[in-house]
Amino acid sequence: MRIAVIGSGYVGLVAGACLADLGHDVILVDNDREKFAALQAGQVPIHEKFLPELVQRHRGGKLQFSDDIREAVRVCEVIFIAVGTPPTEQGEADLSYVESVARSISGAINRYKVVVEKSTVPVYTSDWIRKIILRNAVPPDSFDVASNPEFLREGTAVTDFLYPDRIVVGADSERCAAVLRMVYAPLTDGSYYRQSDAIPQPDRTSVPPPLLITSAKSAELIKHASNAFLAMKISFINAVASICEAVGGNVQQVCQGIGTDSRIGPRFLNPGIGYGGSCFPKDLMAFRSVARECGYEFRLLDEVMRINEDQRQRFLRKVRSALWTLRGKRLGVLGLAFKGGTDDIRESPAILLVQALLQEGCQVVAYDPAAIGRAREVLQSNVEFVGSAYDAARDADALLILTEWEEFSALDLDRLRKQLKYPIVIDGRNLYDPETMARCGFTYYSVGRPATASEPQPGAAAARSGKLKK
Ligand code: UDX
Ligand code: UDX
Hints:
It is a single chain. By secondary structure, the chain is an alpha/beta fold. The chain has three domains: 2-213, Rossmann fold, CATH 3.40.50.720; 223-308, N-(1-d-carboxylethyl)-l-norvaline Dehydrogenase, domain 2; 311-464, 3-Layer(aba) Sandwich (Rossmann fold). The chain has 18 helices and 14 strands. The longest helix is centred in the middle third of the chain and has 32 residues, at 216-247. The structure holds uridine-5'-diphosphate-xylopyranose (UDX) (2 copies). The site of one uridine-5'-diphosphate-xylopyranose has 20 residues, from α9. One uridine-5'-diphosphate-xylopyranose (UDX) is lined by residues 150-154, 227, 230, 234, 268-270, 272, 275-277, 279-280, 338-339, 404.
């Protein structure tokens, strides 16, 4: 099928490249001239596993790039809207980009089209897109509007698209549903997975995925409700971690105990410094406000957001309790992205914590495997950026772990301890076992587990003072 994807951001670019890998002819449209030029030149502006391979494989073939939305709409049967829906000051989703794209689409409808909202949008958006297109004198039977929310996690977006737990299609006519069934047929009939060059199947996924056909409103609600529930699960375990800290419990053991209940499940029960990213914070505010507009005060979401904010404050207090005064202290920071596996720093709790530490007069030396470029734009020269975890630890009063990058959980602890001025690690993502850290000579703080005092070991400070032979 010929498919247009409008918006080549984290979602649009992944969707376009994956739809091309399913065999469709895709035109990816973006009005950002820089992005468009970069894509034309074969650059992939975001850090996503398998995305460069897919773009390289289909660029110039099944994946074309364009900045002409009308031309793309004219030649395609299906048009996905994947433009940004950033939060307004009041916390609502800014749908102005969606509306401007809907208007552009209506000027180019030359036969039956299916317009699909892929961006995360509040319930009733599909109604508005329909109204906007009708207002531009498009005959009602020459288009349908569907909702096809994405459940892509950054860092695993390509495999989340190709190996989804489910595909949700909100369609208000059989004709429209039939078109979207065809779009996803290579997944639902399993033929994609039999291709020799199919992207490898990740663990914990099953194929083929079910395709759920719902009303457009239900599909819009499924997206918001999914993200709100996942964020609630994270805030719930963060609250339990705070209780564990108050009573000397161990949240890791509590997670094992509750996560083995098949109704709860072990995933998304990792306590930390709170959730961030371009989705959870924004989608919770949007869901909260659209519920209020529809007459329901969804106060539970206020508490989910409050706990999330409080998690960062609690971590700051933990740093103070470990180091006493902060002014002038040199802190090594591991991680700036909002989570491991991505270069995205949007609403990153790590960035927010670094900014708070700078406010307190700390000297911050930071390393992140992928996000330094984006972080530098925000933090500028207030932070020293280095090329490895060990460089970040050099001569530091303490090492803070703020992002759950795989590589941060497998450091050479001996080498790390010798780099640090004092062997103090404050782990905001529970990447290490407290006993192991104590055995290796660290004073180790983490989330929801008792702090461990170090067993005396040669550190850089002791060695420097000459008390211990090298
Ligand atoms: C967006 C929404 O922000 C998110 O809530 C939703 O879940 C998926 O779509 P993302 O892909 O991260 O997520 O958005 P962004 O990175 O902002 O990319 C949007 C792209 O659309 C940008 O490249 C922008 O240049 C482009 N765009 C925006 C257009 O092509 N036309 C427009 O009118 C507006
Ligand atoms: C999320 C949803 O998972 C995805 O389905 C939706 O389409 C977009 O939003 P994303 O924000 O990319 O995806 O990443 P996710 O893996 O969900 O992590 C979100 C935040 O929660 C990150 O800051 C992460 O560090 C944090 N997190 C996640 C926890 O603190 N604990 C956990 O157990 C899981």
